[in-house]
């Protein structure tokens, strides 16, 4: 539960940081991206056959050549996870599910006004899962965002389609901007 109403407490706190991605949202995203790696999961809630647990430390592993779905722990290590996704996006396709917190260092250092990053806000609050079912306590007190870190040459930045299939006049035959 949030300690928002207690004097001096943070508005975005929780007793847990391992919120499980709703299967319906993952399935929807997987139809588009065909994920091959979940770098921050448990064996019980992994969304991909290839996954890393806390013991295997996804931050220390290479994600090269993978299509990554990353729903990182929503705690003090968020900056490190977003940094890792930014670094790995040079040689992997990365999609993150993170809180919509535009006031954070990680947002300004790795997301805001970065040409290879696209993000969209999810409407309302996301109902996370516990053990494969919706959390009994309701939703985490944040609005979430899906963040895509893309290689510049991988897709048309304006439409998120393979460049060859983009027929938009401003994109066809030249670098999309």
Describe, in plain words, how this protein is organized in 3D:
The protein is of the alpha+beta class and 177 residues long. The chain has a single domain, classed as Rossmann fold. It has 3 helices and 6 strands; from the N terminus they run αβαβαββββ. The strands form 2 sheets. The chain has a 4-stranded mixed sheet with strand order 1-2-6-3, covered by helices on one side.
Task: Describe the protein's topology.
Blueprint: H1 23-33, E1 67-70, H2 78-88, E2 93-99, H3 105-110, E3 117-125, E4 129-130, E5 133-134, E6 143-149
Parallel strand pairs: 1-2
Antiparallel strand pairs: 2-6, 3-6, 4-5
Quick one: overall form?
globular
Strand content: 15-25%
Parts with pLDDT < 50 across at least 5 consecutive residues: 1-13, 135-143, 151-166, 168-177
Q: What spatial order of strands do you see in the largest sheet?
A: 1-2-6-3
Compact summary:
The chain is α+β, with helices and mostly antiparallel strands. The chain is built from 3 helices and 6 strands; from the N terminus they run αβαβαββββ.
List keywords for this structure.
177 residues, alpha+beta, Rossmann fold, two-stranded antiparallel sheet, 6 strands, disordered N terminus, disordered C terminus
């Amino acid at each position: 539960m949030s300690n928002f109403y207690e004097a001096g407490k943070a508005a975005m706190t929780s007793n847990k940081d391992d919120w499980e991605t709703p299967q319906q949202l993952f399935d929807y995203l997987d139809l588009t991206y065909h994920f091959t790696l979940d770098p921050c999961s448990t064996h019980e809630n992994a969304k991909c056959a290839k996954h890393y647990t806390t013991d295997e430390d996804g931050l220390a592993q290479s994600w090269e050549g993978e299509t990554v779905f990353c729903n990182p722990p929503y705690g003090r290590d968020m900056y490190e996870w977003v940094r890792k996704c930014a670094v790995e996006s040079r040689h992997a396709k990365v999609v993150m599910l993170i809180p919509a917190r535009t006031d954070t260092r990680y947002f300004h250092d790795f997301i805001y006004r970065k040409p290879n990053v696209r993000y969209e806000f999810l409407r309302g609050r996301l109902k996370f899962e516990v053990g494969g079912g919706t959390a009994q306590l309701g939703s985490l007190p944040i609005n979430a965002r899906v963040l895509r870190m893309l290689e510049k040459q991988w897709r048309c930045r304006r439409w998120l389609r393979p460049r060859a299939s983009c027929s938009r006049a401003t994109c066809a035959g030249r670098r999309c901007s």
